[in-house]
Amino acid sequence: MTTHTEAEIASQPDCWRRAVENVPVDALPRPGERVAVVGCGTSWFIAMAYATLRERAGLGETDAFAASEAPTGRRYDRVLALTRSGTTTEVLELLGKVHDIRTTAITADPDTPVMSAADQVIVLDYADEKSVVQTRFATTQLAMLRASLGEDLTRAIADAEQAVATPLSEQLVEAEQFSFLGAGWSVGLAQEAALKMREASRSWTEAYPAMEYRHGPISIAGPGRVTWMLGTAPEGLREQVEATGGAFVESALDPMAELIRAQRVAVARAFARGLNPDEPLHLTRSVILSS
Q1: Which of the 8 DSSP states describes residue 19?
Q2: Which strands sit side by side in the sheet containing 225-230, from one edge to the other?
Q3: What is d(CA 128, CA 109) in angstroms, rounded to the nearest whole number?
């Protein structure tokens, strides 16, 4: 029987197609605006990816913050809040503190408090999820955001089709430990891949910018452990990791499609450990804090 998490992972290529065909440009940051992108958990990591892409595209200074750590005294033209549930306490509290700054939220649920907390709201209800572990909503909103920057995601979607269908390596399912690496915008995706492994399968995972990995973290590499690059690895890194006896994983897939492979491995590892990825331990769909 297919779990909700498995079905949602497999639906990502179709969700991405829909997202890039329906980009609500008027509600998203405009060229030249100074933007703060905020979220919690997965949404924060997607914010990191988008912020890097937007700034490197020359469209304006863009910062990413965990909503609980976002500075309220710094001047921005827009705050972009990412919240699948529309109920996350830290996001709603931040939007309530923002004055004289345009706010936009992206959510999956139109019947939640964020609808009135932000000036403009983009609802991706077709990418909503029944599972607690967030997969397709995260990548669908990033697909839309990438398209809004002028990217052509044709290849990324084709890569996603490959990522949902390619058999998984038993080496990945059975590994003891994972270190996910990224560069530029894929640093956020590396953080997200590590989070998925923790959430779904309680795996020991870490994440770093690829060039930082040799500054200490590589000491954990070794037999039975995996260093997994999302994007193109720095020259010589594969050889250094393999010299430790550890495995190095890298592919030519778009990093967002490679994230799908990591999601699938997380689910496979959950099953191997007798866990239900639809019911991750100690987690709920949204963190709502009592006042």
Answers
A1: H
A2: 204-209, 177-182, 225-230, 247-249
A3: 7
- Cβ(76)–Cβ(94) below 8 Å: no
Distance CA 118, CA 79 (A): 9
What is the percentage of the chain residues whose pLDDT exceeds 70? 96
Which residues lie closer than 8 Å to 29 by C-beta, 6 or more apart? Answer: 35, 54, 59, 60, 62, 77, 78, 80, 104
Euclidean distance between CA atoms 231 and 213, whole angstroms:
15
User: Per-residue pLDDT tens for 34-54?
Assistant: 999 999 999 999 999 999 999
Of 3, 11, 84, residue with least CA distance to 280: 3
Q: What's phi and psi for 105, nearest 5 deg?
A: -125, 145
According to the model, what pLDDT value does residue 240 have? 98
Q: Which residue has the tokens 């070794």?
A: 222
| pLDDT exceeds 70 at position 91 | yes
pLDDT digits (tens, 9 = 90+) for 255-291: 999 999 999 999 999 999 999 888 877 666 666 667 5
Q: What residues form DSSP beta bridges with 229?
A: 181
Q: Is the pLDDT of residue 73 over 90?
A: no
- Amino acid identity of residue 217, one-letter, is P
CB 226 within 8 A of CB 179: yes
Placement of tokens 């009135």 in the chain: 116
Q: Which tokens is 174 given? A: 């059975």
Please report the beta strands in the chain, taking only residues with DSSP state E, as ranges in sequence order. Answer: 35-39, 62-66, 78-82, 102-107, 120-123, 177-182, 204-209, 225-230, 247-249
Is this model's pTM higher than 0.90 or not?
A: yes
Least Cα distance to 153 among 165, 164, 167, 139 occurs for 139
Do strands 177-182 and 225-230 pair parallel, antiparallel, or not at all (unpaired)?
A: parallel
Find all residues with CB under 8 Å of 131, minimum gap 6, and list them. 3, 4, 5, 8, 277, 278
